[in-house]
């Protein structure tokens, strides 16, 4: 398994799990309230699940991969900006930032930039 495939699987499963948690757990409801984004929780959770599944499907249909990795990159860019805006400490901000970088890399590989 190469780095691209390993990162794809890691990112895909992470987003599906996190998306399901966003839709179903009280903790995530409280987190979205803390962000001031409670009305976007269902949309964000759904996009995370769709994006994660899109990464897997995109391994077999490359245009889907570009959309999924690009969408997850944008979602995590906004997530990182939100964490900075609400002044979360670095340990809480790093996961969104790292997933932003991972999906930027995956998008770059999918577009043959890297």
UniProtKB/TrEMBL annotation:
Asked whether the UniProt record includes Hydrolase among its keywords, one would answer: no
**InterPro entries, A to Z:** DoxX
Q: Could you tell me the membrane topology recorded for this protein? A: Multi-pass membrane protein
Transmembrane segments annotated in the record for this chain: 6-23, 43-61, 67-86, 93-111
Kindly list the places in or outside the cell where this protein is found, as annotated in its UniProt entry.
Answer: Membrane
Q: Which UniProt keywords apply?
A: Membrane, Transmembrane, Transmembrane helix
Q: State what protein this is by name.
A: DoxX-like family protein
Q: Where does this protein come from, organism-wise?
A: Psychroflexus maritimus
